[in-house]
């Protein structure tokens, strides 16, 4: 259920990339561990910030990843749980881990239209060019000019660059 991620900085662009490595098998994990992991992912999805905070304080990995490669931060952000996302970021959760489908946390928040979450992720260092589609592509797709401005992207509007 919990996968590890590694950081590879050897690509030609010198940008940090994130790769998800699934565990050999979740069959090797005791049922109680799988049940706890499922509960933690549900807490992130539902925005149960106080309870999730207690688990983080007790040592739950801040970048715990489910079988799909979704982190706690990705689940909280995708579901618009800004306070939960904030707690995870403050605990040191990485906003630049891609899930198993190559999607980024911030692109998911843009896709869902969560203004507060998008702004917070961006301010905490989420890479808007990471993943496919990336956050810039999603903002363009949905005509979110305010996010494109936030991301520092100038768009052509009726033949003229918007300022």
TrEMBL record:
- Which keywords accompany this UniProt record? ANK repeat, Repeat
Taxonomy, superkingdom: Eukaryota
The ANK repeat boundaries are 68-100, 101-133
The record's section on Pfam families has:
Ank_2
The annotated regions of Basic and acidic residues compositional bias extend over 1-18
Return the protein name.
Ankyrin
SUPFAM superfamilies registered for this protein in UniProt: Ankyrin repeat
Q: Where is this region: Disordered?
A: 1-26
**Entry-linked InterPro entries:** Ank_Repeat/CDKN_Inhibitor (IPR050776), Ankyrin_rpt (IPR002110), Ankyrin_rpt-contain_sf (IPR036770)
Keyword Repeat among UniProt keywords: yes
